[in-house]
Design brief:
The complex is a heterodimer of chains A (263) and B (236).
Chain A: H1 24-34, H2 39-62, H3 70-75, H4 78-98, H5 102-108, H6 112-146, H7 158-182, H8 185-202, H9 206-216, H10 218-221, H11 223-226, H12 232-259
Helix pairs in contact in A: 1-6, 2-4, 2-6, 4-6, 4-7, 4-8, 6-7, 7-8, 7-12, 8-9
Chain B: E1 2-11, E2 14-24, E3 28-33, H1 40-47, E4 55-60, E5 75-78, H2 90-101, H3 106-115, H4 119-122, H5 131-143, E6 149-153, H6 161-176, E7 180-184, H7 188-194, E8 197-202, E9 205-211, H8 214-218, H9 220-228
The chains are: A mainly alpha (263), B alpha/beta (236).
Keywords (chain A): Membrane, Transmembrane, Transmembrane helix
Organism (chain A): Promicromonospora citrea
Transmembrane segments (chain A): 42-64, 76-95, 116-139, 159-183, 190-215, 235-255
Chain lengths: 263, 236
């Protein structure tokens, strides 16, 4: 230790004015970095990419279903993404509690709602990047299936791709929201997975059940969005399910996190 | 200057802090002493906005922590050296904080040097750090923003004698550079050597608030035990 070179002595070129509020972009950038800078995070991201690409290759090249189009090959990874991306969103919030890093995170930015918003933006960026990666990988995969003698289609439907990407973002944000609400990784993952399955059964329990499932099952209401076939009738259920699974839990989570005592 | 102004904190029937008032002036080290459960950590947690006070205020240069923009550039804090992600390297932990505060990357190297963590050690994940190394890392993080106030909860915990002396020298230098340093500790002799003032707390009440001179340094231990004798067994 040398007590002669205190950082108090002079400013460095990269220093910003300390009195300025922390810009939101800086918070979001740091939150993206926190999604990739630990081994746990890297394992999760690797599983996500390997799982999705693996499923894509098995489905397209090995099973050689029908006549593949690059669009279907890319969006066929949806179920894998909707398994892993929400877990990533959940862990981005709950690890602050399980690792107790919330102490530092909220000391650096005491406006806790702002930190959660930065986490939502970071998770959105990862979801969009993953979707883009799937579309990119779908090209060689589709081409490889063509080598086996099928006639693939390389046509893309931009509207459907944006809708599909938005669907992936919605599932990811659902994870962030559940994580913020429950502040417990295991519980949030269970709630997310059980809810995904449970709606199928609710839909079978008569008139009321099927109406509820039609309006509030995010897996169902996002199908028209992901397929690029949004109709006016599909808008209401989509918004209702986003409200129930993304907006309401996120807002309740922000309220909870703002009040909670950090330990 | 750090100011605790009639701070009271109630948890159900328990009064964790009972009308606590004291100041930590700039350019000084104030030792915050008291048995476990006396309220030291609670007072520091309220100062940093981790917990709300039932009544009263804790401020830094007149402002509550949450009202300060980019607060880590004004107040450095280490409340719990264990609250670090074990999967991150020491250097990455500091780099994340530096990025939020908006200080030059080279600050990371500077503060590592200040607390005596080597570059090689900083490249290892925190998982393998001893408590002493985590304390050093936490102090480094607290110093990143060149703060005017420094709040440390038992930073000597887990440090070896070399580390304790090094931290003592460092905090002296930091205070001499103008910083208001509040430091809780159970090491009475260390505090007697380092601090300009001591505040003794027991069962949530301030029992003593005094400057330290040669005489008080001599009998700090006697004074501490006579003041807190009734607290020993009752403390949580």
């Amino acid at each position: 230790m040398s007590s002669t070179t205190l950082p108090w002595t002079g400013r460095l070129p990269g220093d910003v004015s300390p009195s300025r509020t922390v810009p939101f972009a800086r918070l979001a950038t740091v939150e993206i970095r926190k999604l990739t800078d630990t081994r746990t995070a890297l394992v999760l991201l690797t599983l996500l990419v390997l799982g999705a690409v693996g499923a894509m290759i098995v489905r397209t090249v090995v099973l050689a279903q029908d006549v593949p189009g690059v669009q279907d090959v890319a969006t066929g990874t949806g179920p894998v993404l909707s398994l892993f991306l929400p877990i990533l969103g959940i862990v981005s919030v709950t690890s602050e509690w399980s690792r107790r890093t919330a102490l530092t995170t909220f000391a650096l930015e005491p406006r806790r709602g702002r930190v959660l918003a930065a986490k939502a933006v970071a998770a959105t960026v990862v979801a969009v990047a993953t979707s883009a990666l799937m579309i990119a990988v779908a090209y060689p995969t589709t081409a490889a299936s063509a080598a086996r003698g099928t006639e693939p289609s390389f046509a893309l439907d931009p509207v459907a791709l944006v809708g599909w990407t938005a669907t992936n973002v919605l599932f990811t944000l659902c994870g962030v929201a559940l994580g913020a609400l429950l502040l417990n990784g295991a519980a949030s993952i269970v709630v997310y997975l059980v809810a995904s399955i449970a709606w199928g059964f609710v839909g079978l329990t008569g008139e009321l059940g099927s109406t509820l499932a039609r309006w509030f099952d995010l897996n169902g209401t996002t199908v028209p969005l992901a397929d690029g076939e949004m109709s006016p009738e599909a808008v209401g259920p989509l918004l209702a399910s986003i409200g129930l699974w993304v907006v309401v839990p996120f807002l309740l989570g922000v309220l909870r996190v703002r009040r909670i005592e950090l330990r | 200057m750090i100011t605790f102004d009639h701070l009271t904190k109630r948890y159900g029937a328990t009064l964790a802090l009972d009308d606590v008032s004291f100041e930590v002036p700039a350019s000084s080290v104030t030792g915050f002493l008291g048995p476990n459960g006396a309220g030291k950590t609670t007072a520091m947690r309220i100062l940093l906005g981790h917990t709300r006070a039932t009544s009263g205020r804790a401020t830094i240069d007149g402002r509550q922590y949450a009202a300060i923009s980019n607060p880590a550039a004004t107040v450095g804090a280490l409340l719990d050296a264990q609250a670090v992600h074990p999967g991150r390297t020491g250097a990455e932990t500091l780099a994340l904080a530096a990025a939020v505060i908006g200080v030059d990357r080279r600050r990371v190297g500077q503060v590592l040097d200040l607390v005596g963590l080597s570059v090689a050690e900083s490249r290892r994940t925190v998982k393998g750090y001893s408590l002493g190394m985590r304390q050093r890392l936490g102090i480094a993080q607290a110093l990143l923003g060149s703060p005017r106030a420094l709040v440390l909860d038992e930073p000597a915990n887990g440090l070896d004698p070399q580390g304790i002396r090094a931290v003592r020298d460092l905090l002296r230098a930091v205070a001499d550079a103008g910083c208001a340093v509040l430091l809780s500790s159970h090491l009475l002799h260390e505090v007697a050597q380092l601090a300009d003032r001591v505040v003794i707390i027991g069962r949530g009440r301030i029992l003593e608030d005094t400057t330290i001179d040669d005489t008080t340094a001599q009998d700090l231990e006697t004074r501490y035990f006579s003041l807190t004798s009734t607290e020993d067994r009752s403390a949580a």
